Amino acid sequence: MQQSSVRSYRFTGFDWFCLWYPPGWLILFNRHWQHYHADPDGWNGLEYALFLIPGGFYLALLLRWLRLGCRSPRSSVAEFDPNYQNAFRDEIVAPIVQYYFRAELHQTENLPETERLMVAMNHAGMCFPWDFIVLAYLLADTRGWVVQPLASVSLFDHPWVIWWLPPGWSQVLGGVRAELNEFEAAVTHKTVLLYPPEGVHGPGKGWSKRYQLETFHPSFIQLCDRYHLPVLPVLCLGSESLHPWALNVKKLARRVSLPFLPISPLMFVFLLFPSMGVWAMRTRLSYYIQPLYESWTDEGSDQTVRTETSEGGTALKVHQGQMAAPPTIRRSQAYRNAQHLREKLQNQLSRLLSQKSDTP
Question: Residues of the signal sequence (predicted)?
Fold first, then answer.
């Protein structure tokens, strides 16, 4: 994106309407993209209007499919564009964070100066990953960091995502597929990586277990050890209310190739307005920065633990939305370190929840 040659996107009265009318969030995302990118396969004005009426999205989808010659939108090879990330953050995410999620960053004295680290955060909500998007915005706004989230491959390639959002949208905004080669490419640059150590089990645990941290996958410990990436743990309160009272229907999720499929009273509204797939309930997101954690200096760990590459190299595979780490001498030690960190964060999370409940 040659941002210097394109007039900045102006948040109009129609955009404010879309912000406060949930079916309009998908319009916000696509209109902003089309302001900076040629997108002949994208949604048009009539189709946007249909988003706003019950059941209209299905007619809009049919009209677009016919307009494209009865085919899916063309895929494209997309690369991270920091200029567009900045534009989207300042022109779309900023008003959402300020007026809708009312997000706050606490304990900022724990933020390090380094820009080469991994941020590990508890993940919940069973919806579009607003807890991560908002944290990325806050870190960039506070420190000026370039922030890129790691995500399951299914969240990039699923047919629903391809029709909802422009091809390559997630990659252009900095999304990193949970694969070894993608991770290594991101690590070589001065960037901050966001990673959910619970994997898809985090948002998939549902409302009843919203404050229970799932088992941390050891891959992030192995990779941080291999590249000497410090981990910045962050605890988020309020993300469970992005899609409250949700249950995860695992069998049905597998049938439609999704990492999780929430069922709640909101799903009846979603069936009438499928464009609400990128929306979430209004809540207050609070982020608590924890002290920096370095796996290779973890108390009780064997400091000789190192991730080794087998002959011919390794591939970081994806299993149920998590990164499967490359072969290592002491994978068991990495697992112990990961669960040690999980226990510390669970204790801290319980303490924060107790303090919150005691506050009048």
Answer: none
